[in-house]
Design a protein that fits this description.
The chain contains 15 helices and 12 strands. Helices cover 39% and strands 13% of the residues. It is of the alpha/beta class.
């Protein structure tokens, strides 16, 4: 236990607090059980350590950070750790990598232990992180009525600018971006040359570890993709090595043709997947792990069994990682828009235009010379235009949609 405290103190003291993600201010830290999920590499651990450092400055003994892949948990349970921590004045427990915890009893995994701790130690607050597919994991303890869940996306374009000390701009709502885009874009563009930084973000700005080793960035992303499929997805019941191999082939097939307008029969045949329901399930795994985005029509029904209208890679950095530099400009533009809007808004495929947001706003994506011809008869329709510093009327700079969080 002392070694856990020593490591915890070291990590908490070393975390930098000069930049906070927008989610940091949105989390209700007073809740007793908080789940923070998100893709690998987006900064979940840093977010937790930053909050832990606040408590640590007030009372170092009241807070501990633990990672459940530590060898300590080969022979110790989360429950006994929490009980011992509480005896010594512990109040705040930050738990990382919950899905890597080796269960100590049959039908009693990490979720069952957290449920017991929640019920038996009411004065202990717990924050834990998990991969973005954690909701697909059928745990032995039902935490749905106890936990408060938050999802951490990759860096927005606004956060990328802040993270690199380029400029500090506020978050803008979608309504502000639509109705005040000319004013907002003019003000920002008067203070910073925005387009070169936007190009940099599109290439390498989504994950916050680029600055650690720029030359290794894309190799690190490839490693993350493999870990997501080989470890995270493989932790789902009934997933074996053969299936994870098919999921990799599926991702490769999608990456070579994104945005992919699905012919699922051909796709399943090429991958030797005999059942379309199985293919839908694999697509769902890839979407939940935040490697792809499935864009559906506005029709109702079970999304898992609904044929998507288009399939995108989750973010533009993944496109450069999986595809290389031979990428259609339109693909980059649409992927950026889809990623930034999909985080906080409902986004679907419309009858006309490229996207419909919140069942209300229709967007066509293009360059600065894009016309409104295709959507001119549609109410609440807009152009998200690339390569433009400022907007006017219903023509909104594409980069401005990176200021939503």
């Amino acid at each position: 236990m002392q070694n856990l405290f020593d490591l915890s103190n070291k990590l908490i003291r070393s975390v930098k607090n000069d930049f906070h993600r927008s989610l940091f201010l949105k989390v209700d830290w007073q809740q007793r059980l908080i789940e923070i999920k998100g893709s690998r590499g987006v900064g979940k651990t840093t977010l937790m350590l930053q909050k832990a450092s606040e408590y640590h400055k007030i009372n170092p003994e009241s807070v501990i950070y633990i990672s459940l892949d530590d060898t300590y948990f080969f022979n110790h349970t989360i429950t006994e750790t929490a009980e011992q921590f509480r005896k010594y004045g512990g109040k705040y427990m930050f738990i990382d990598e919950v899905h890597k915890y080796p269960p100590k009893f049959k039908n009693h995994d990490w979720s069952a232990e957290l449920k017991n701790i929640y019920d038996l130690i009411p004065d202990l607050k717990i924050v834990y992180t998990g991969s973005s597919i954690i909701e697909l994991y059928k745990g032995d303890g039902d935490l749905s009525r106890r936990k408060n869940t938050y999802n951490l996306n990759g860096l927005s374009f606004r956060e990328f600018l802040m993270y690199n000390n380029l400029f500090n701009f506020p978050v803008f709502s979608l309504d502000d971006i639509i109705n005040k885009n000319a004013l907002i874009s003019s003000e920002i563009s008067s203070k910073i040359k925005i387009l070169p930084h936007f190009k940099a973000y599109i290439l390498h700005g989504y994950f916050p570890f680029y600055n650690e080793s720029p030359k290794q960035y894309f190799q690190r992303l490839k490693n993350i993709i493999n870990v997501i499929i080989d470890i995270d997805i493989s932790s789902i019941p009934d997933i074996n090595f053969e299936i994870s191999g098919k999921i990799k082939k599926l991702l490769g097939a999608l990456a070579s043709t994104v945005p992919y307008t699905p012919n699922l029969t051909n796709l399943s045949g090429n991958l030797y997947i005999s059942d379309l329901r199985t293919l839908y399930k694999y697509l769902n795994y890839l979407e939940k792990s935040e490697l792809i985005t499935l864009l559906n029509s506005q029709s109702k029904g079970n999304k898992i069994l609904q044929k998507p209208e288009k399939i995108f890679l989750n973010n533009t950095n993944l496109i450069y990682t999986l595809v290389g530099n031979k990428i259609e400009t339109g693909t980059i533009r649409e992927t950026f828009f889809c990623n930034q809007l999909n985080y906080m808004h409902k986004i679907n495929y419309p009858k006309s235009g490229d996207f419909i947001v919140d069942d209300n706003y229709v967007f066509e994506i293009g360059g600065k010379n894009k016309t409104t011809r295709q959507i001119k008869e549609i109410k609440h329709s807009y152009i998200a235009m690339d390569e433009a510093e400022t907007g006017f009327a219903n023509k909104i700079p594409l980069w401005l949609f990176g200021f939503l969080y």
